[in-house]
Amino acid sequence: MSTDPNVPSENLLSHKWDRVISNFVVKTGLGLSAGIVASALLFKKRTWPIAIATGWGFGVAYADAQRVFHPYHVPGVQFEKQKPSV
After folding, report:
1. Alpha-carbon distance 23 to 16, whole Å?
2. Contact 65, 20 (CB under 8 A)
3. 65: closest CA among 26, 34, 8, 11?
4. Is residue 45 a contact partner of residue 66, using CB atoms and an 8 Å limit?
5. Cβ-based burial of 31 (10 A; exposed 0-12, middle 13-18, buried ≥19)
6. Residue 83 confidence (pLDDT)
7. What is the pLDDT of residues 27-77, one digit of tens each?
8. What is the pLDDT of residue 1?
9. Distance of alpha carbon 10 from the chain centroid
10. N or C: the chain end with fewer CB closer than 10 Å?
11. Three-state secondary structure string covering the chain
């Protein structure tokens, strides 16, 4: 992310949403895929591994979205106050 004051806030928000949506699609898809494989290979084609793995992927994507939009909730992150420009 850029902290350049010349970048409009709409562009910063757009980049954040792009990242969040792409993470959601990728991580939920990977969870779904892993659930299907686990269901087929290990659990005699039951549906609960698919649901659990998909939910896990969605949860990871949601947690990452929280970090993208609210970085002050991440432990160890500190923000410095900017001095007013004259």
Report:
1. 11
2. yes
3. 26
4. no
5. buried
6. 75
7. 999 999 999 999 999 988 888 999 999 999 999 999 999 988 887 777 777
8. 53
9. 20
10. C
11. CCCCCCCCHHHHHHHHHHHHHHHHHHHHHHHHHHHHHHHHHCCCCCCHHHHHHHHHHHHHHHHHHHHHHCHHHCCCCCCCCCCCCC
| Rounded (5°) CA angle 1-25-13 | 30
Rounded Cα gap, residues 1 and 71, in angstroms:
12
For the record, the structure tokens of 79 come out as 């923000």
Residue 26 identity: V
Structure tokens, 4: 């350049």
31: amino acid identity, one letter: G
Q: Are 4 and 15 in contact (CB under 8 A)?
A: no
Residue in the structure block whose two tokens are 């969040």:
20
The first and second tokens of residue 22, run together, are: 């792409």
Q: Which one-letter amino acid corresponds to residue 66?
A: Q
| Cβ atoms of residues 45 and 39 within 8 Å | yes
